[in-house]
Amino acid sequence: MSASTATKILRERIVLIFDFDDTLGPNTTRAYLEYLGLSFEDFKSRLRERKKRKWQAPLAKADLYREYSHREGSPLNRESMQAFGREFPLFPGVDEMVDHLNDFVRELDDNITLEFVLLTAGFKTIPAHSVIGQQFDRVYGGELHFDDKGRVLSARRVISHVDKVHYIKQLVQGLDLDRASELENTYVEHDPDQYYVPMAQVIYVGDGNSDMSAFQVVEGGGGVAVAIDKDGEGEWENYDQMSRARRVHNIAPADYHPDSELMNTLCLALRMMVNRIKLLRFGQDD
What we know:
Blueprint: E1 13-18, H1 28-36, H2 40-52, H3 57-69, H4 78-86, H5 94-108, E2 113-123, H6 125-129, H7 131-135, E3 138-146, E4 152-157, H8 163-173, E5 202-206, H9 212-220, E6 224-229, E7 250-253, H10 261-281
Parallel strand pairs: 1-2, 1-5, 2-3, 5-6, 6-7
Antiparallel strand pairs: 3-4
InterPro entries: HAD-like_sf (IPR036412), HAD_sf (IPR023214)
Protein name: Haloacid dehalogenase-like hydrolase
Organism: Neolewinella marina
């Protein structure tokens, strides 16, 4: 069969997309403020007041960062964010995950590549400087604008949890994610033959209700969504009442060691996708 008559496109890559907060490590804002010796509860209270005044959450957080950053002698600045990122306390085994999964797929088929993408609705300064952020191929998230002294001035880019859906679709379609997100791109027809990767070769890992829309778009396209149970309870509240489209393949504890339930889940998903690619090769020209 010629490539033009094959019913599925062949892309010899698999993309793994990870949320950051409560997925690869603890809540970034709480951990950072505690690192600086500042009260997270006070920050959260101020954030709640802004939300009552109809502020969008990412903009409210950026404005609070600006306020804190401009206090006399404030430690909250770009330099301390980057420094904290470098020592960010990741969940167990995260720092070895990329190597382990690359080795696993290489043993199955050394012509298939993995791509690791970080997609956070938070600000990316800290995640991008973390050990795992440095290992990932791409990092997308909100961005802060700093002055020449490293103080926060404003948000330069925000990504909501709903926006994540459009980023995932744009990544799959091979569109440019480095410019400001143009959400209409995901609603127009694009030639599937030009897609960067089929959704069926995408794995999304997130932590809960805020990732439901992302779970749905990945699962709906034939990919695999995996949820992190950071508290080790084994389930989410009201999970049984969720629509099947929003459910995930598995909910696993936040343990990334090689023999953990989470890593076994990811390896099973990767094996399935590797076999899919091998099958699709039969539909291509020699």
